């Protein structure tokens, strides 16, 4: 086997004093070349976490459904054998482009990308053409278990999941994300007072809402789930609903006109927080079954609700010990109080929450 090897066009470099190589690998070779075996080995004797099988079908579906418009980040792997690198000649780029040869009897262990590996296997079974695409691979020379474990820790230590708001802003495949962007842009109050990047608002921010809160509340309003299609009429209905809500929120209008600081509203009122937006979305899901003039008249009663945190009715609902709560029970109980003020009957399950509160 010494005379047989896998050969990849590659770029050579150095990280922390050790050689590393970047190559493009045909995806059909990924399951044959790269080893991932952590299922029956104790964690202290391996360098990866166990595979989360629930993540794999989602990645595989993403590849199959977007064969001409997907993006996969590089796999990181360690090689437990001596490799050879033959620099290309006459490239004019020095000695760092060439052919990387890896013995076929070498173990190539994945340090980062095990879920991508499994998803590629499933995706190629459904669409064999994907096997001719490439995925970048960063190769390191294996320096033992301790070093491989440290590599895993280092690779994942600084990984930060993007906020739901910025994911919604940038996701052009998801119909619900597109709906949220349209609502945020076309509802007058939202268009001026929405934080588009973060899913929380700092004390000094001039914003009042987050894009993620608008998305979740509108998804509830229209009773939609991930993957559902959303018609133009549904989007227009959502925009009309939120404009009607905003028209009956005097403090929101004052913030829009810069007559009151948004920080003051967040500090003193419950209607300036995501729990209230979600609660109103829940209520709206029921109201939209009524004729438009009827639900618009009901929303006018929002003007008469005492939204101040000083209103003791919010304690145990939108607030716990004076702090705003985003828990599911808080959303329901907050919505219950608003429904009572609007003259809307509670459902059986909402009555159960009231009994638990009392």
Automatic annotation (TrEMBL):
InterPro entries: DGQHR-contain_dom (IPR017601), DNA_S_mod_DndB (IPR017642). It comes from the Bacteria. It holds the Pfam family DndB. This is DNA sulfur modification protein DndB. It comes from Billgrantia antri. The lineage of its organism: Bacteria, Pseudomonadati, Pseudomonadota, Gammaproteobacteria, Oceanospirillales. The gene is dndB.
